[in-house]
Amino acid sequence: MLLSEAPLFGTNETYFYNPDSHFTSFFHFNDAMAVLGESFADGHQFLDDRAKKEFLHAELANAGVIILDIFPFALNPRHTLITYRNLSAKEYETLFLRTSDLYFKPKLTKLMGDRIPHFAFRYQRVAKRLERQVTEAVNMVIGKTSGFVGRVTIDKVCGTNMTLDREKLRTLCKTSSGVPQ
User: What is the 3-state secondary structure (H, E, C) of 83-120?
Assistant: First the structure.
């Protein structure tokens, strides 16, 4: 599971799940090669980004890749004065702690299957500010849903600036067996 803040729905409506928007730094079409292999799109011709996005969404779902937002809403400069970037570390933590029981934990509970997924933070800001709190929430849900009593750790696939560390993601996908390391 790739953990991120919330779908960024800004003025251009360019968030990952919107098939009518272009790809962003969150997850490019080429990032999928790290998860799905170099040739996952061979033989496919795409008329536009919409077709490319719909194909990618289906392929990631088939591969078992889940993107889980930890907050229930986007905070965009066009619609609110508060954004994730301008929240202090304490406000960021408070927001997670106040919404986790109502949003993050129930979503995670619904997504849990018979295997314990491998978790990774997409953005450094999320990992830096919430690693302990999110890890505690994840382990609580896993303990309740699977009875697993160990501790799951959460990796990071944060690249430099906004990019995704494709090599780290590739390594995690190759070594992930669905059980904690």
Answer: CCCCCCHHHHHHHHHHHHHHHHHHHHHHHCCCCCCCEE
